[in-house]
Amino acid sequence: MLDHHVEHWVVAHRVASLDWLFVWLSHAGDYGLVWLAIGLALAVVTRRAGTAVLVAAVVAVAELESAFGKLLIPRARPHDDPLIAVPHSHAFPSGHALTSFAAATVLARLAPRLRAPFFVLAAAIAYSRVYNGVHWPSDVLAGAGLGVATALLLLAVACRAPRRARPAD
Fold it and tell me: What is this structure's pTM?
């Protein structure tokens, strides 16, 4: 199976001096914490609390989707020389990829000039899961695609939501 060959190839071609970075990226992506921090920082800088709320909402939805997906599709994780503890949950879809791409998509819409760094960080976090030996590449690709779709749906709903009337000056 191609998935297994790619995962084995990535693990076999790790660069020891970069192991710390990919371990850190995986931990930074846990529960979307890095994305929540970025959303909060952006909300403070722009003085728009809605930014933090929208990022928190997409992270929460993505985490729920990931948990539900893992219940529906009981796929075993690889155990090919992992660099981090192998989670006890199932592999499909990658929650880190789902949450990262969902948050990056929302943040890219809110701060278009930072679009590239957001997606580079999302891709790095997602790739770290294969590099660290705890996900198959298809888990990551599915998570990334579902994350983007989730964010686009949430943004569409948020754009259609009625705004509260502002008090007259």
Answer: 0.88
